Amino acid sequence: MGNKKRGHYCLACGDYLANEKFGGTGHGKHLCKDCKRKGRKVYSESNSDYDRELHRLSKAIRNCMILYTEDGNFFLFEYQRSRYIIRNDFDSDIFVYQEKTEQKFFISEALQKNKVLMEVLYKKYYDTMENGYTLDYEEVLEDGSLKISKKRRQHLDVILSLQHLR
After folding, report:
1. pTM score of the predicted model
2. Neighbours of 30 (CB within 10 A)
3. Which residues contact 1 (CB under 8 A, 6 or more apart)?
4. I need a labelling partner for 73 at 20 to 30 A (CA). Which of 11, 88, 123, 150 fits?
5. CB crowding 122-150: b at 16 or more within 10 Å, else e
6. pLDDT digits over 83-127, tens only?
């Protein structure tokens, strides 16, 4: 019927867990057995919404890559099976790549800039840089046999379509 999560959400650890992981009053307090045993505290309601969204976006945004060009640097990532691009200064709009249209890039309506999203993007950007998932635009144009993973090869279409973004 929908994408309803099974089990309960633990306010302390931020995960959806099976009903069996909650004991007695744990269901009502939204505190799993492990967190209760470890003495973790439950965050305030406004904080938990922020934490939930942070946790959800951290898992959903993946296959990140940094692209260096003459005009500037770009951060490419995947979210819900779509490919996105933003300048690495994070001041520009977030663009979604549409492969089957003449105009390849559109301003994303699905990802609106907000504090949680920007925090996740900053973290993913630095993790990506630390892990060495970077490309130089000139190398992409010159070399057809780049040594990047299959998951990140999907970004090659985006990279080769960058002239549409300018």
Report:
1. 0.65
2. 15
3. none
4. 150
5. eebbeebeeeebebebeebeeeeeeeeee
6. 999 988 888 889 998 888 888 888 888 788 888 888 999 999 999
